[in-house]
């Protein structure tokens, strides 16, 4: 700009220039100066805006750096937490494996105890039944060769052996207190069966048909009871059976084996049952003792 002024001054001094041209040149110079100043102002404004944007960018960068730092701290904390959880999981897994092994051992021991208990229980029941099996064998051996098969029956059930004998094998006709000769075979067989197991006890049960009995002023229940009592006394007095091992009972006509509508049925119903029972109390005590052990 100074160079331009010097040039203009030289022209004015050395030349004869019209004033109008000088004014024109000055106007051009002023416009040029104004344009340059406007450009400078625009550039200054741009610089200010750029500086402001740069400041904002730097502020955003700082915020990002802070956020990044927080995220890194959080990641470190989460990693520490994961490590702690992993250690706890490994410890828990190891403890659970130990507990599982202990539980399996306890289960195996319990299964062994159960199997042993079941075997002992079966042995107790077998011993309980063996007395009845022996009694059944004694009755069969004693009666099979000496008494007609159609005059008696033997039934074995849980806890008892029942020998059912027709009245004609024991009592004389129309009698309640007089035995015939075959009665000795039956009573001896019953006594031998009782002696095969000291825990067995005897129940003698009298039965009748539904016809009137031959004893005057006595109903069928009483008549059957008299026969059962007489047999119990006979075993105690003649065969020396302890009285605490025998009981006499009666069902009279109220427990028929067959229908009373036919003579054959009535004959079958006039019978005496010798019921040999094992001592259930001993069985229960043994089972209870086994459970307590």
Describe the structure.
The protein is of the alpha+beta class and about 290 residues long. It folds into 2 domains: about 1-55; about 130-290, OmpA-like domain (60s Ribosomal Protein L30, Chain: A). Helices cover about 65% and strands about 10% of the residues. It has a 5-stranded mixed β-sheet with strand order 1-2-5-3-4.
Distance between the termini: 125 Å
Helix content: 55-70%
The residue-averaged pLDDT reads 86
How many discrete domains? 2
CATH architecture of the largest domain: 2-Layer Sandwich
Enumerate the strands of the largest sheet in spatial order, edge to edge or round the barrel: 1-2-5-3-4
CATH superfamily of the largest domain: OmpA-like domain
């Amino acid at each position: 700009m100074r160079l331009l002024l010097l040039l203009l001054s030289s022209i004015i001094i050395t030349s004869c220039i019209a004033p109008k041209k000088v004014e024109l040149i000055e106007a051009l110079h002023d416009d040029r100066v104004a344009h340059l100043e406007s450009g400078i102002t625009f550039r200054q404004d741009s610089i200010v805006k750029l500086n402001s944007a740069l400041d904002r960018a730097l502020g955003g960068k700082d915020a990002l750096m802070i956020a990044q730092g927080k995220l890194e701290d959080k990641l470190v904390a989460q990693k520490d937490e994961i490590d702690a959880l992993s250690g706890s999981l490994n410890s828990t897994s190891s403890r659970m494996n130990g507990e599982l092994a202990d539980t399996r051992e306890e289960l195996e021991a319990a299964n062994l105890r159960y199997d042993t208990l079941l075997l002992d229980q079966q042995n107790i029941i077998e011993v309980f039944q063996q007395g009845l099996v022996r009694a059944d064998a004694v009755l069969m051996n004693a009666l099979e060769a000496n008494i007609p098969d159609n005059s008696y029956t033997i039934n074995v059930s849980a806890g008892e052996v029942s020998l059912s004998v027709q009245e004609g094998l024991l009592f004389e006709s129309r009698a309640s207190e007089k035995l015939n000769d075959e009665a000795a075979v039956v009573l001896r067989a019953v006594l031998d069966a009782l002696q095969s197991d000291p825990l067995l006890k005897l129940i003698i049960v009298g039965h009748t048909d539904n016809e009137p009995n031959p004893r005057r002023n006595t109903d069928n229940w009483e008549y059957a009871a008299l026969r059962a009592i007489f047999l119990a006394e006979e075993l105690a007095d003649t065969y020396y059976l302890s009285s605490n091992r025998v009981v006499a009972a009666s069902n009279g006509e109220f427990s028929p084996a067959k229908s009373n509508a036919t003579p054959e049925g009535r004959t079958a119903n006039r019978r005496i049952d010798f019921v040999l029972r094992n001592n259930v109390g001993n069985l229960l005590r043994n089972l209870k003792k086994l459970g307590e052990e």
